């Protein structure tokens, strides 16, 4: 009986030690499934959220005529993209959903992202749906507000960056205006390990 207790103690100790060696824990703040959305990207190519299956990606919500939060958010996302590449983290994509799809044509999205030093081979800016669709999609999939009022050319929207795993699940979010680069890199790496 004593040997069984010693054996169980050793097994428990090994389990604790091994869990400490398995690397960073995957983020799990949320368990939100990204719904289906069909769109076109800045190159005019078809895009669907379902095509992101099996990929780790970061998402945000922006629009090209934004005069407040979108320029710093987009700049911050380019900095994150550069930092991930510098750390050798290649297998992550970025999707920026336009919250002003009637204004944001693929051409306007191309002009917008052209102002930044972004690698558009792994960054898709998407549009091609209607206003009601993006408002519902953002609310249901990302629990974030998108609201365009009739008398303004500006759109109210959240400023978070979202991390989505290979199953299309939103796991966590970050402040898009003051992102923690190291945390984002660690979280992305944990999903890729």
UniProtKB/TrEMBL annotation:
Q: Kindly give the PROSITE patterns that the UniProt entry links to this protein.
A: PROKAR_LIPOPROTEIN (PS51257)
Q: Which InterPro entries match?
A: SCO1/SenC, Thioredoxin-like_sf
What Gene3D superfamilies has UniProt attached to this entry? Answer: Glutaredoxin
The record's annotation in Pfam families points to: SCO1-SenC (PF02630)
Q: Which domain of life is it from?
A: Bacteria
The family line of this record is:
Belongs to the SCO1/2 family.
- By what name is this protein known? SCO family protein
């Amino acid at each position: 009986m004593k040997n069984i207790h010693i054996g169980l103690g050793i097994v428990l100790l090994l389990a604790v030690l091994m869990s400490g060696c398995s690397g960073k824990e995957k983020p799990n703040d949320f368990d939100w499934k990204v719904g289906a959305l069909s769109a076109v990207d800045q190159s005019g190519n078809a895009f669907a959220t379902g095509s992101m299956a099996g990929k780790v990606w970061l998402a945000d919500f922006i629009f090209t005529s934004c005069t407040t939060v979108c320029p710093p958010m987009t700049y911050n996302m380019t900095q994150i993209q550069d930092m991930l590449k510098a750390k050798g983290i290649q297998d992550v994509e970025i999707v920026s959903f336009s919250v002003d799809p009637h204004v944001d044509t693929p051409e306007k999205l191309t002009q917008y992202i052209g102002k930044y030093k972004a690698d558009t081979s792994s960054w898709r800016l998407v549009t091609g749906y209607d206003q009601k669709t993006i408002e519902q999609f953002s609310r249901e999939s990302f629990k974030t507000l998108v609201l365009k009022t009739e008398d303004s050319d500006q759109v109210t929207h959240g400023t978070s960056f979202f991390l989505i795993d290979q199953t299309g699940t939103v796991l966590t979010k970050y402040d898009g205006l003051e992102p923690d680069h190291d945390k984002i890199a660690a979280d992305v790496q944990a999903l890729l390990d």
